Amino acid sequence: MRTPIIAGNWKMHKTVSEAVELVRKLEAELQDSPVEVVVCPPFTALSAVFALGLSKVKLGAQNMYHEEQGAYTGEISPAMLKDVGCQYVILGHSERREYFKESDVFVAKKAAKALEHGIKPIICVGESLDERRAGKTFDVVVTQTKGALAYITPEQIADVVIAYEPIWAIGTGETSTGEDANEVIGKIRATIAELFGQDKADQVRIQYGGSVKPGNIAEFMNQPEIDGALVGGASLSADDFTKIVQYE
To answer: How does pLDDT run across 214-242, given as a tens digit for each residue?
Structure first.
């Protein structure tokens, strides 16, 4: 039985004080939730959120570099994230792929290094609108999934989370239907089974992301292949994010 995981990607939002206020509200509201809850604030707020001593809400980062240390101006290492209490890190988000030209190989190196440090990667995959219209959705997500998992061992795969985020649905108000998302996520799971075997694939949690809101979360969570959500804008509101986590 896979434990659902709902993570909030705050992107470039929230000052330190705003982050602390939001997480305090979530920690108080979500104590009884059976869902695993993760928040991913900006780097500047990680230490302050960790200092709250959270018991329910887990801490994640939005990105990291794949080297231990060195002359990499502006980058953050996995050891640094571990030091401030991060248990998860988002990797390969479409915004990183588009704006910063991150490749599948680059994402794969990051994922392997995160696991080496005991940080679970949330690896994002998804197709553009043009790729969707061209009928290339499966081709894109299979290629990205295989690429991102290139350096992962069978012993590590259960600690990987995959987030299917169709690029055309991120921040646009457009969403996939539950059935469509379930079909694509089923294809991702079949790809993992091809690489690691069905038993291993059945342990991997796969989220849906893309304009997830309180009003549509149940449509996705009621699908058999979908194990959670990676939430963008709605995770910036304590009320909205609480409603998403408490979707039943």
So the answer is: 999 999 999 999 999 999 999 999 999 99
CATH number at 32 reads 3.20.20.70
Active-site choice (66, 93, 95, 219): 93
Domain housing 131? 5-245
Task: Confirm whether 93 is a catalytic residue.
Answer: yes
Residue 66 a catalytic site member? no
Q: Does the pLDDT value for residue 172 go beyond 80? A: no
Rounded to whole angstroms, the Cα distance separating 128 from 25 reads: 35
pLDDT in tens, 128-166: 989 999 999 999 999 999 999 999 999 999 999 999 999
Can you list the pairs that 63-66 forms with residues at least 24 positions away whose Cβ atoms lie under 8 Å? 63/89, 63/90, 63/91, 63/93, 63/96, 64/89, 64/91, 64/110, 64/113, 64/114, 64/119, 65/110, 66/106, 66/109, 66/110, 66/112, 66/113
Among residues 29, 95, 127, 165, the one annotated as catalytic is: 165
Q: What's the number of domains the chain is made of?
A: 1
Phi-psi region of 147 (alpha: psi -120 to 50; beta: other; left: phi over 0): alpha
